[in-house]
Amino acid sequence: MTPLDSIKYYMTILHTGFLAVEPQTGKIRAWVGGIDYRYFQYDHVTSARQVGSTFKPIVYTEALRQGISPCNYFQNVLVSYPEYKNWQPKNSDGAYGGFYSMAGGLSKSVNTITVEVLLQSGIDPVRKLAKEMGIRRDIPKVPAIALGAVDASLQEMVMVYSTYANRGRRPELYSISKIEDSNGNVIFDAKSKQNTSFKQVIAPEHADMMTKMLQTVVDSGTARRLRYHYGLNGDIAGKNRYYSKSIRRLVHRLYP
């Protein structure tokens, strides 16, 4: 087998990572870093990658915080921004025209709408909010962050989405519940740090509005395949990201 054959074989393997947590407590219920640690030691939970459209809810959250209504309409037009070296964000489907509400722009993941919402809200406030919600890595000061030009780990993004499910309180994730010494004395108890001590980074009403908007993404938006193709029922909110060139998919789901 040649090195090229090895690369071709490797490209046929589906790699994945998975992290499930309790938003109200921060307790990690499941952590799957990869498909087989014997052969692949790369942890897809802690490693960073571009988060793509899963960053968009943070943009819309900051807009809500600034008083922009989910029912505000924005024009879906192709725009060049001379102040950013004539940067011209394009929609993934190449379709333009008409108007979208802020909620509709998120549901259909319309890039032009998200960029306009970002610029109205301000790049720095969005960057600051992303940090407060759980992204610990550097966030570039560019408008492309609206489309997910941000490197973050699955663990960081789970903290962001858990903040919505926890009505604006950012949970601190943990996998160890309690530590006792040989005499039974409690050295550490994770319960003492739960919910009441979690930082309120967004108002409960804004978290509730975002959860509703993210439910629309699953029910009738870009993540609707979870319903009609995979048959998932119940109350689900979430956002998906897909890069066709790299064939990478990232989905964050909440169960309100």
Report on the architecture of this protein.
This protein is an alpha+beta fold and about 260 residues long. It has one domain (about 15-255): Beta-lactamase (3-Layer(aba) Sandwich), CATH 3.40.710.10. About 30% of the residues lie in helices and about 20% in strands. Helix 2 crosses helix 5 (about 125-135) and helix 2 (about 55-65) crosses helix 7. About 35% of the residues are buried.
Q: Any low-confidence stretches, pLDDT <50, length ≥5? A: 243-248
Shape type: globular
Series of secondary-structure elements, N-terminal to C-terminal: HEEEHEEHHHEHEEEEHHEE
Q: Oligomerization state of this entry?
A: single chain
Radius of gyration: 20 Å
> In CATH terms, what is the fold-level topology?
Beta-lactamase
Number of β-strand runs: 12
Derived from helix and strand composition plus strand pairing, the structural class reads alpha+beta
Our estimate of the beta-strand percent is: 15-25%
Cα distance, first to last residue? 50 Å
CATH class: Alpha Beta
The largest sheet is: 2 strands, antiparallel
- H/I helix tally: 8
Q: Can you tell me the CATH superfamily?
A: DD-peptidase/beta-lactamase superfamily
Overall pLDDT confidence? 91
- Write the CATH architecture name: 3-Layer(aba) Sandwich
Largest sheet, order of strands side by side?
A: 1-2
Level of helix content?
25-40%
Number of domains: 1
